[in-house]
């Protein structure tokens, strides 16, 4: 299996949020200007972590592109409502074509293949944006391509479009231009954040095993059960340093989770950020607030 790393988390925000960041953001994080994307009306701001990953505040400042425009991989976010919507993984040791080729091979082999969920990855598409200082950066995005498998959930569990697995993001220009993670001013945060501890993926209870197996093949990671919980953990690398992060595939069992599944669909539900903190005990975590902030948690760095 190949070695994949966490790349970034996408938090879709409206224009008011983007232009007037709420206190739960500014009180906890150092926000770095991103830029404007080429070919579509979108822009971003970043919260960059010392492990080389980042949280992206993504905003449409005008009408999103049509789903028919296959040259714009971000078009899938156009119909989504604000909140955590997607995340990217990368492989800093291989090209986009090599990484995705290996993953697609795993998804097409063996008795379980893609676990009957109808997932493979398409061809890498080049994206770019201009930073605030005028620097042009570019990357290749490879998004999943979906089909109707014998275990694919019904359409009502893909609210405003299907985004239940991550996409790949590989750098074309030097990664440090896109993610200035060596700049301590940018990676030092008031809350003590050091990196991404976990991404939680909420799935239907009856498809928990299938989604866990699917994620294992995409990430190239072994499955670890969480004792006493209906969840499985998959280990994932980070772009910088020796720390690790995880992806947790979690079955919707509580009323809160089932309601969330109906409202936002299968996929990324919560983000856990590792912090250096004496105010949190081992295994304890604290949400940053209400609304969108209730899905972003701080947990003591392990």
From TrEMBL:
Ranges of residues in domain Glyoxalase-like: 7-206
Pfam families registered for this protein in UniProt: Glyoxalase_3
Superkingdom, taxonomy of origin: Eukaryota
Protein name (record): Glyoxalase-like domain-containing protein
Organism: Clonostachys byssicola
Taxonomic lineage of the native organism: Eukaryota, Fungi, Dikarya, Ascomycota, Pezizomycotina
